[in-house]
Structures are given as structure tokens and as C-alpha cells.
Amino acid sequence: MKTGKVPENVLKRSVLRQLKTGREEILKGAGVGRDCAFFKFSDGIVISCMQEAPVAVQTFAGCQPPGFAVRYTMGQLIQKCANNLAASGAEPVSAIIGLLLPGWLEEPELKELMAEAEGKCGELSMAIAGGQTSVIEEVSSPVAVVTGYGKRLREDGFGAGAAPGQDIVVSKWIGLEGTAFLAQRYRERLLVRYPAYLIEEAAGFHRYLSILAEAAAAVESGVCAMHDASEGGIFAALWELAEGAGVGLTIDLKKLPLRQETVEICECCNVDPYRLMSGGSLVMAVEDGPGLVEKLHARKIPAVIVGKVTDSNDRLILNDGEIRYMDRPGTDELYRFLGEDKKAHTGRGSV
């Protein structure tokens, strides 16, 4: 299978259909477009999610771990977990961290990983509640598995989900996460075409990757459904939001918010910004889109209405009078580009 998310049809057929055992404590479990699970106990609702990825240590500074196209810092991985919780209407509370370590890793590198994890958790007011640390012979570089836990911000959740007639609001800008990665990794190549200030600004987009503030504001405003845009880009996030609720969408392509840095870097790398990792952008379905946008702007969070939820199963993209159907999410553009770039530099193809 290709790098990245497992295709939706494979997920349904070979993962979700194998899950047959239920528990009354699980209000909402695994499913398409669901990044978190909801557990009901006598004293309230607990929400959990999990993220896993290869992680970077100083030993790998300036180079790429073998076998992995993209690696994360511990802070970025924990932020992804917190974003999933916030997009499910929860306040992040704690994390359990599992580390699978290669034999070459020394204690100072392990200390570095955990110090960064504690630093990010402290920033998010999350406690590290436990975990597991193991050295595995088959592991070539460190891999972290972070399970986050949160408490629901509203006892009634945040509505019945996306429904026809609701506005679709998108916060900040799409493609932030992928743009930052490309600007950092291909800085010298991009500097041939663009000024240094543009590349430096794009490389700093990681500062926008938290969606906790807009998620909290959306819950206060009576948001009906949320989904953070991450792997697969904004198109994948919109599809998953609609698929999870069994509704359609009509989206105006021109209204999807893009930074000029993303436009330039995607053009240079021949990457589709609408299918590029978009961590830092939150998709929200709400009855009063203008009211939510106003609330977010008051908190200095950029946001715009990009379309409507519809009563059909069609997911439509409008672009200057043309209408086309949204495709099922595929491989993230970042993985596609990295794969082609690798082939070009090993003589097996070209970008």
C-alpha cells in the first residue's frame, strides 16, 4: 500500500468491518472521519485519540531517518493529538506516550525526546500520565505513539452533526503544515526562485498548527460538527466531515483560504495545495456561519465561510461557474512529491 492514510475503501473493508465487539461505555468508536472515541462513565464523558509517527532527535538533524518520508518532533505529534481532541469538542487533559527505540539510541537522546514532550504538554496544560518505553531491534529510528485524553467542554456535546443548510467555516489557511515542511526541507532549491523572506515565513508556519482556540470558540458558538484538516489536505477533511454525517457539500474553491507563500511553493514543487497536509486549519459546520466568523475574528483568528452542507450525497466544488465532483481522499500531495523527488535523485524517474 502507498505511504500515508489507508484508502477509505480498504479502511472500511479490512479494518472497520473486522470490529464486531462493542461495549455500552463506548458512545462513539472507530469510523470514517472519526479521530476520537467517546467513553461514557458515571461521572461524565471521556474522549480519547491516538497519533503515531517517526520522531526526530538531534542525531538526525539535517538528514532523513531511513524508510520514512516525514518525521515529526514530539511537540508536533502531541499537538496533533490535542487538535484531534479539540476538534471533538474536548479540552485536552493528559497523554500516554509509547516509545519504540532503536538500539543505537543513547540516553541523552531519550531524555531530549521526553523533555520536548513535557514542554509541549506543559504549554497545553496536559499531564503525561504514563506510557511504555522499549528498545526494539527491528526499529531503525524512534517511533512514538501518543494517546491523548480529554474532557468534553459541553455536556450535550456540540450538536447532532453536520446537517443540510449549515454553513461550512474554515479557520486560518489551508496547506500550512505541508508548506512549512517543504520550505524547511527544500530551502536551498526554493531560494533559487523566491526571496529568503518568503521561504523563512513559510518555514515558520508551524506556529499556526494549534486549532485549540478556534475549536473552543466554535463550541461556545453552538458548532454542530468539526474536523481538523491534516493529512490529505482540505479536500480530505471536507470529504470525511460529509462522509461521517452522510451528507453532501457545495464548496466554493475560490473561498478556500490560501497564503501566498503556499501558492508559490506549491507551484514550484508542482503540488496541489488542496490535497496538501493542512494541520492548523479547522473545518466547522454551524447554523450561523457569519456569527462564528465574527467571534473568531474578534479573537484574531482568521476564518471564512466556504460553502454549505446539502441534503444529497454529492460533494461539489464550484470554480468560476464550473462544477465538479470531489474525489475520495487519496495519498497526501506531500508523500506523492517526496516519492517522485526520491526517484528523480536515484535515477528512476523525474519530478
CATH homology-level superfamily of the largest domain: PurM-like C-terminal domain
Rg, Cα atoms, Å: 20 Å
Number of helices: 11
Mean of residue pLDDT? 85
Annotated CATH architecture of the largest domain: Alpha-Beta Complex
Strand % is: 25-35%
Largest sheet: 7 strands, mixed
Give me the count of strands: 13
Q: Please tell me what the overall shape is.
A: globular
Structural class: alpha+beta
Q: Looking across the biggest beta sheet, what order are the strands in? A: 8-10-7-11-9-12-13
CATH class of the largest domain: Alpha Beta
The tally of structural domains comes to 2
Order of SSEs: HEEEHEHEEEHHHHEHEHEHEEEH
Helix content: 25-40%
Question: What features would you describe in this structure?
Answer:
- There is one protein chain.
- This protein has 351 residues and is of the alpha+beta class.
- It has two domains: 132 residues, 60s Ribosomal Protein L30, Chain: A (2-Layer Sandwich); 179 residues, Phosphoribosyl-aminoimidazole Synthetase, Chain A, domain 2, CATH 3.90.650.10.
- The chain is 33% helix and 25% strand.
- It is built from eleven helices and 13 strands.
- It is globular.
Topology:
Layout: H1 8-15, E1 26-28, E2 36-41, E3 44-54, H2 74-87, E4 90-101, H3 107-123, E5 127-135, E6 143-152, E7 167-171, H4 176-185, H5 187-191, H6 196-203, H7 212-220, E8 225-229, H8 233-245, E9 248-252, H9 260-269, E10 281-286, H10 289-298, E11 303-310, E12 315-319, E13 322-325, H11 333-345
Parallel strand pairs: 4-5, 9-12
Antiparallel strand pairs: 1-2, 2-3, 3-6, 4-6, 7-10, 7-11, 8-10, 9-11, 12-13
